[in-house]
Amino acid sequence: MKALHIKNLSKTYANGTQALDHVSLTVEAGDFFALLGANGAGKTTLIGILTGLVIKSSGEVRIFEQSIESEFSRIKKMVGVVPQEMNFNIFEKVQDILMTQAGYYGIPRKQAVHRAEELLHRLGLWEQRYKVSRQLSGGMKRRLMIARALMHQPKLLILDEPTAGVDVELRHGMWDYLKQLNQQGITILLTTHYLEEVEQMCRHAAMIKEGRLVKCDKVDNLLKIIDKEPFILTVDEVRNTNRLKGYAVSVVDRHTMKVELDKRHLHAFIRDLEKNGMSLQDIRPQGHRLERLFLQLLREDEMAG
Ligand code: ADP
Across the chain, which distance is largest between two alpha carbons, in Å? Predict the structure, then answer.
């Protein structure tokens, strides 16, 4: 079954901005899917359409085979959303926020109490349950948003940059939890700026640029595109670079070189470097990997069209 079926989806806002331009993509039930794109690419608009906050201009959207136009009340029950902006009442207590959500979905009180208890434990918020939400740390607030989105046991969980502003340690905990949810059968769609997040969790990813779908593929295939990484090397003195045949080396200055290679060949390269009389003092990867993936895909897209 398809969790999401999007065909020729377009959105033009009232001011004339075309945020989505004939986007077509499919997400299978059970998938863990990443939506990538720079700021302004159209990700929030796409999520807004899926969650009923934005009205599409044209095209077709089906969630678990139901059309978002005619079956929206059914769809609402199947989808949980974690928006980017915290949007709960900051004076409401953590537990009450979950209970209010349950009320909104018509979950019987007894069941809701049980469910809230379970989620508070699982997301590490049990000790905070009587605190008003503004007393929570940023990471706790984020987890509260996830707990709230899960109250009605959705089949599809949509998260808009779930780990933005969450520190590294908590981020890993959150990844583990999202992976567990996915293993339990929940389809997950998220937007992110972290390639590591995509590598760790997602099976498929789509990239949009200026409202158009540039690429949609298995994450493994996307990562192959950036197998070769640029590294910046500092050596005692650059010499005999002509002997480093077979490597894409360029000299930056007397002590610095750049080489582009597959990480797995790094050791061999360093060996060859030292064989040729250079002593390595420092080596570091150049640049952010997701950025390079974007650039590479954009380049391919421009060449294709
Ligand atoms: P992303 O989430 O990828 O950053 P958005 O979907 O927020 O992208 O925005 C896509 C484009 O649509 C941008 O050019 C943005 O300025 C524009 N946009 C978003 N929301 C509105 C709106 N309510 N009215 C007009 N333009 C909008």
Answer: 76
Most informative mutation of 10, 15, 17 for ligand 1 (most atoms within 8 A of CB): 17
**Which of 245, 239, 196, 252 lies closest to 219 in space, CA to CA?**
196
Per-residue pLDDT of the chain (305 residues; tens, 9 = 90+): 999 999 999 999 999 999 999 999 999 999 999 999 888 999 999 999 999 999 999 999 999 999 998 888 889 999 999 998 888 888 999 999 999 999 999 999 999 999 999 999 998 899 999 999 999 988 889 899 999 999 999 999 999 988 877 777 778 888 888 999 999 999 999 998 777 888 889 999 999 999 999 999 999 888 877 677 788 999 999 998 888 888 889 999 999 999 988 878 888 999 999 998 999 999 988 766 777 777 777 777 777 76
In 3-state terms, what secondary structure has residue 174?
A: helix
CA of 214 to the centre of ligand 1 (A): 18
- What is residue 126's DSSP assignment? G
| Distance from C-alpha of 134 to C-alpha of 159, rounded to nearest angstrom | 21
Ligand 1 atom with minimal separation from the 15 CA: 25
